[in-house]
TrEMBL record:
Domain GmrSD restriction endonucleases C-terminal: 113-206
InterPro entries referenced in this protein's UniProt entry, alphabetically: GmrSD_C
Protein name as it appears in the record: GmrSD restriction endonucleases C-terminal domain-containing protein
High-level lineage: Bacteria, Bacillati, Actinomycetota, Actinomycetes, Pseudonocardiales
Transmembrane segments annotated in the record for this chain: none
PANTHER family with a match to the protein in the record: AMP-DEPENDENT SYNTHETASE_LIGASE DOMAIN-CONTAINING PROTEIN-RELATED, SECRETED PROTEIN
Coiled coil: none
Alphabetically ordered keywords of this record: Signal
One Pfam family from the record: GmrSD_C
Protein backbone atom coordinates (compact mmCIF):
# COMPACT_ATOMS: atom_id res chain seq x y z
CA UNK A 1 0.00 0.00 0.00
CA UNK A 2 1.63 3.31 -1.04
CA UNK A 3 2.06 6.05 1.51
CA UNK A 4 1.46 9.67 0.75
CA UNK A 5 2.63 13.06 1.86
CA UNK A 6 1.50 16.54 0.98
CA UNK A 7 3.77 18.78 -1.00
CA UNK A 8 3.07 22.47 -1.44
CA UNK A 9 3.92 23.70 -4.91
CA UNK A 10 4.28 27.43 -5.16
CA UNK A 11 2.56 29.04 -8.13
CA UNK A 12 4.29 32.38 -7.84
CA UNK A 13 3.00 33.65 -11.13
CA UNK A 14 -0.53 33.44 -9.76
CA UNK A 15 0.36 34.51 -6.24
CA UNK A 16 -1.17 31.35 -4.78
CA UNK A 17 -0.07 27.95 -3.57
CA UNK A 18 -1.49 24.64 -4.66
CA UNK A 19 -1.34 21.45 -2.67
CA UNK A 20 -0.95 18.17 -4.48
CA UNK A 21 -0.80 14.61 -3.26
CA UNK A 22 2.41 12.74 -3.99
CA UNK A 23 2.62 8.95 -3.97
CA UNK A 24 5.94 8.14 -2.39
CA UNK A 25 5.87 4.39 -2.86
CA UNK A 26 3.55 4.18 -5.83
CA UNK A 27 4.70 2.82 -9.15
CA UNK A 28 5.59 5.41 -11.75
CA UNK A 29 3.38 5.32 -14.82
CA UNK A 30 5.62 7.15 -17.30
CA UNK A 31 7.68 4.45 -18.97
CA UNK A 32 9.63 5.16 -22.16
CA UNK A 33 10.37 2.25 -24.51
CA UNK A 34 13.77 0.67 -24.92
CA UNK A 35 15.02 0.93 -21.32
CA UNK A 36 17.88 -1.57 -21.04
CA UNK A 37 18.04 -4.06 -18.20
CA UNK A 38 20.44 -3.30 -15.36
CA UNK A 39 22.86 -5.93 -16.64
CA UNK A 40 22.79 -4.52 -20.17
CA UNK A 41 23.17 -0.96 -18.89
CA UNK A 42 26.21 -1.95 -16.83
CA UNK A 43 27.72 -3.68 -19.85
CA UNK A 44 26.99 -0.74 -22.13
CA UNK A 45 28.36 1.76 -19.62
CA UNK A 46 31.68 -0.07 -19.68
CA UNK A 47 31.92 0.43 -23.46
CA UNK A 48 31.14 4.17 -23.53
CA UNK A 49 34.06 6.45 -24.34
CA UNK A 50 35.17 8.45 -21.31
CA UNK A 51 36.33 11.93 -22.27
CA UNK A 52 36.08 15.50 -20.95
CA UNK A 53 32.95 17.30 -22.08
CA UNK A 54 33.31 19.65 -25.01
CA UNK A 55 32.20 23.27 -24.98
CA UNK A 56 28.81 24.78 -25.68
CA UNK A 57 30.27 26.98 -28.42
CA UNK A 58 27.70 27.25 -31.21
CA UNK A 59 24.95 25.50 -29.24
CA UNK A 60 21.30 26.47 -29.40
CA UNK A 61 18.12 24.46 -28.87
CA UNK A 62 17.07 25.45 -32.38
CA UNK A 63 19.81 23.16 -33.70
CA UNK A 64 17.78 20.26 -32.29
CA UNK A 65 14.39 20.74 -33.99
CA UNK A 66 11.93 19.19 -31.58
CA UNK A 67 8.25 18.58 -31.07
CA UNK A 68 7.97 17.84 -34.76
CA UNK A 69 4.83 16.54 -36.47
CA UNK A 70 4.24 12.84 -35.80
CA UNK A 71 1.07 12.47 -37.85
CA UNK A 72 -2.60 12.47 -36.89
CA UNK A 73 -2.30 16.16 -35.92
CA UNK A 74 0.08 15.21 -33.07
CA UNK A 75 3.56 16.52 -32.35
CA UNK A 76 6.21 14.66 -30.34
CA UNK A 77 5.26 16.30 -27.04
CA UNK A 78 1.63 15.32 -27.48
CA UNK A 79 2.53 11.74 -28.35
CA UNK A 80 4.60 11.40 -25.16
CA UNK A 81 1.89 13.05 -23.05
CA UNK A 82 -0.58 10.43 -24.27
CA UNK A 83 1.90 7.58 -23.94
CA UNK A 84 3.00 8.44 -20.40
CA UNK A 85 -0.37 9.56 -19.05
CA UNK A 86 -3.31 7.69 -17.58
CA UNK A 87 -6.71 7.95 -19.24
CA UNK A 88 -5.57 10.77 -21.49
CA UNK A 89 -8.20 12.22 -23.80
CA UNK A 90 -7.40 14.62 -26.62
CA UNK A 91 -9.16 17.08 -28.88
CA UNK A 92 -9.09 17.09 -32.66
CA UNK A 93 -5.77 18.98 -32.51
CA UNK A 94 -4.25 16.20 -30.30
CA UNK A 95 -3.91 18.54 -27.31
CA UNK A 96 -4.85 16.74 -24.07
CA UNK A 97 -8.29 17.53 -22.69
CA UNK A 98 -8.19 15.17 -19.71
CA UNK A 99 -6.20 12.51 -17.90
CA UNK A 100 -3.45 12.49 -15.31
CA UNK A 101 0.31 12.10 -15.20
CA UNK A 102 2.51 10.57 -12.49
CA UNK A 103 6.01 12.02 -12.63
CA UNK A 104 8.51 9.27 -11.79
CA UNK A 105 11.21 11.79 -10.88
CA UNK A 106 9.32 13.12 -7.84
CA UNK A 107 6.17 10.99 -7.56
CA UNK A 108 3.81 13.93 -8.11
CA UNK A 109 0.47 13.42 -9.83
CA UNK A 110 -0.85 16.13 -12.16
CA UNK A 111 -4.12 16.54 -14.04
CA UNK A 112 -3.10 19.50 -16.22
CA UNK A 113 -0.75 18.93 -19.15
CA UNK A 114 0.64 22.43 -18.57
CA UNK A 115 2.26 21.11 -15.37
CA UNK A 116 4.18 18.50 -17.37
CA UNK A 117 7.44 18.87 -19.26
CA UNK A 118 8.76 16.28 -21.67
CA UNK A 119 12.27 15.74 -20.41
CA UNK A 120 15.11 14.90 -22.75
CA UNK A 121 16.74 12.34 -20.43
CA UNK A 122 20.12 13.23 -21.89
CA UNK A 123 19.68 17.00 -22.21
CA UNK A 124 20.21 18.60 -25.59
CA UNK A 125 23.09 20.71 -24.26
CA UNK A 126 24.76 17.65 -22.73
CA UNK A 127 24.43 15.84 -26.05
CA UNK A 128 26.03 18.82 -27.80
CA UNK A 129 28.99 18.73 -25.39
CA UNK A 130 29.45 14.99 -25.82
CA UNK A 131 29.23 14.46 -29.55
CA UNK A 132 26.11 16.01 -31.08
CA UNK A 133 27.96 19.18 -32.10
CA UNK A 134 29.33 17.11 -34.97
CA UNK A 135 25.97 15.74 -36.05
CA UNK A 136 23.82 16.90 -38.93
CA UNK A 137 20.60 18.77 -38.16
CA UNK A 138 18.67 15.66 -39.22
CA UNK A 139 20.57 13.55 -36.68
CA UNK A 140 19.93 16.09 -33.92
CA UNK A 141 16.24 16.18 -34.84
CA UNK A 142 16.02 12.39 -34.57
CA UNK A 143 17.65 12.53 -31.13
CA UNK A 144 15.35 15.29 -29.88
CA UNK A 145 12.20 13.46 -30.99
CA UNK A 146 13.16 9.87 -30.24
CA UNK A 147 10.00 7.85 -29.55
CA UNK A 148 11.67 4.44 -29.77
CA UNK A 149 14.38 4.82 -27.13
CA UNK A 150 14.51 5.87 -23.46
CA UNK A 151 15.19 9.52 -24.26
CA UNK A 152 11.82 11.24 -23.66
CA UNK A 153 9.66 11.10 -20.52
CA UNK A 154 6.81 13.13 -19.02
CA UNK A 155 7.77 14.69 -15.67
CA UNK A 156 6.88 17.58 -13.37
CA UNK A 157 7.81 20.82 -15.11
CA UNK A 158 9.71 22.53 -12.29
CA UNK A 159 11.67 19.35 -11.51
CA UNK A 160 12.76 19.23 -15.15
CA UNK A 161 13.75 22.89 -14.94
CA UNK A 162 15.85 22.16 -11.83
CA UNK A 163 17.62 19.43 -13.78
CA UNK A 164 18.47 21.77 -16.66
CA UNK A 165 21.37 20.37 -18.66
CA UNK A 166 23.04 18.58 -15.74
CA UNK A 167 24.43 15.06 -15.98
CA UNK A 168 23.90 12.51 -13.18
CA UNK A 169 26.98 13.59 -11.23
CA UNK A 170 25.33 16.99 -10.73
CA UNK A 171 21.61 16.09 -10.65
CA UNK A 172 19.55 13.01 -9.85
CA UNK A 173 15.78 12.55 -9.56
CA UNK A 174 14.45 13.51 -6.11
CA UNK A 175 13.09 9.97 -5.64
CA UNK A 176 16.13 7.80 -4.90
CA UNK A 177 14.06 4.73 -5.72
CA UNK A 178 14.07 5.85 -9.35
CA UNK A 179 17.83 6.23 -9.63
CA UNK A 180 18.36 2.74 -11.05
CA UNK A 181 15.81 3.30 -13.83
CA UNK A 182 17.10 6.80 -14.53
CA UNK A 183 20.67 5.52 -14.88
CA UNK A 184 19.48 2.74 -17.18
CA UNK A 185 17.70 5.28 -19.39
CA UNK A 186 20.68 7.65 -19.41
CA UNK A 187 23.14 4.91 -20.36
CA UNK A 188 20.70 3.50 -22.93
CA UNK A 189 20.44 6.84 -24.68
CA UNK A 190 24.16 7.62 -24.58
CA UNK A 191 24.93 4.14 -25.90
CA UNK A 192 22.35 4.37 -28.69
CA UNK A 193 23.73 7.68 -29.92
CA UNK A 194 27.41 6.93 -29.26
CA UNK A 195 27.83 9.95 -26.99
CA UNK A 196 30.76 10.24 -24.60
CA UNK A 197 30.66 10.44 -20.81
CA UNK A 198 33.01 12.20 -18.43
CA UNK A 199 34.66 10.46 -15.48
CA UNK A 200 32.41 12.02 -12.81
CA UNK A 201 29.35 11.04 -14.84
CA UNK A 202 30.58 7.44 -15.10
CA UNK A 203 31.20 7.26 -11.36
CA UNK A 204 27.69 8.55 -10.63
CA UNK A 205 26.08 6.14 -13.11
CA UNK A 206 28.02 3.19 -11.69
CA UNK A 207 26.79 4.05 -8.22
CA UNK A 208 23.18 4.49 -9.39
CA UNK A 209 23.24 1.17 -11.27
CA UNK A 210 24.52 -0.42 -8.07
CA UNK A 211 21.04 0.21 -6.62
CA UNK A 212 19.38 -2.00 -9.22
Amino acid sequence: MPTFRLVRRSLTALGISAVLTVGIAGAADATPPGIPSAATAKSNLATLTVAPDGTLDGYSREKFPHWIDQGNSCNTREVVLKRDGIGVTTGADCAPTGGKWVSPYDGATWTAASDIDIDHVVPLADAWRTGAAKWTTAQRQAFANDLTGPQLIAVTDNVNQQKGDKSPDAWKPPLTGYWCTYARMWVGSKYKYKLTINSAEKTALTSMLGRC
